[in-house]
Design brief:
binds D-glutamic acid; globular; alpha/beta; six-stranded parallel sheet
Length: about 270
């Protein structure tokens, strides 16, 4: 069997990475994907680097056992803390979402004043700050953790008053920073994009990693001649370490009612 027919492995701590998986399926509809949401151990965003690396290695080992031809870390926190570690344990290409997010931000920003919101772990790692200034050395990056956004998104509070109030509390200080672009530096945040956009106003471009990460994956597969030549829609297999109705609802909202198969996975020691 040719390597190009193998699936693409994608993991996140929960449902947020489905935003990246959906972008990958839009760009590469004939590829098979295997998605793992580590919902039992979510959130990653407030955990130590050592713990997130340990979880990321477990997730990667599971996906590598499924014989994936590439691995996408669809979680900003795990990308910030474990990209190099995972690149060191396998020969398949391993891609994170930080550099794609930084590329999207630098492309969108005219002034170079760029806001980044993410989990405590992502912001503390300085990964976005470093990736943005590596691409544009004169950029001014204002980084802000928004830790309550993840549980709100996981809870399905996309249109809830509580989410609006919390978002206003977090984001209002950014109005004094004169930014023209805001990176949604956590895969869960695009699920709250409508609320964030309303608070930030029309003059601030909101960007996330999903589309640029899908493009980076396309390029990585294409250079290695690993793009499938199949012309049928690819199979979508989803695993979650804790299955909830919410996971199914959100997967359905992205991929439709027949979104693929969803199986429970036990990744405990
Ligand atoms: N999806 C993760 C990220 O992109 C955040 C969720 C979590 O804290 O586990 O950073």
């Amino acid at each position: 069997m040719s390597k190009a027919t193998l699936p693409i492995g994608i993991f996140d701590s929960g449902v947020g990475g489905l935003t990246v998986a959906a972008a990958i399926c839009r760009l590469l509809p004939h590829e098979h994907i295997v998605y793992l949401g580590d919902t039992a151990r979510l959130p990653y965003g407030n955990k130590s680097v050592a713990t997130v690396q340990r979880y990321a290695i477990k997730n990667a080992h599971f996906l590598l056992k499924q014989k994936v031809k590439a691995l996408v870390i669809a979680c900003n926190t795990a990308s910030a803390m474990a990209l190099e570690v995972l690149q060191g344990i396998t020969d398949v290409p391993v891609l994170g979402v930080i550099t794609p997010g930084a590329q999207a931000a630098v492309k969108a920003s005219k002034s170079g004043a760029i806001g980044v919101i993410g989990t405590v772990g992502t912001i503390r790692s300085n990964a976005y700050q470093n990736a943005i200034t590596a691409l544009r050395p004169d950029a001014r990056v204002v980084a802000l953790p928004c830790p309550l956004f993840v549980p709100l998104a996981e809870e399905g509070f996309m249109h809830h008053k509580a989410t609006e109030l919390i978002a206003r509390t977090y984001l209002t200080p950014l109005h004094h920073e004169d930014i023209d672009t805001l990176v949604l530096g956590c895969t869960h945040y695009p699920l709250l994009q409508h609320i964030i956009a309303e608070i930030m106003g029309p003059h601030i471009a909101l960007v996330d990693s999903a589309n640029t990460a899908a493009l980076a994956l396309h390029n990585a597969l294409s250079t290695r001649e690993l793009l499938t030549t199949a012309r049928k829609p690819g199979a979508r297999t989803f695993y979650a370490t804790d299955i909830s109705d919410r996971f199914q609802e959100i997967a359905q909202s992205f991929f439709g009612p027949g979104f693929g198969t969803l199986e429970h996975l036990d990744l405990t020691e």
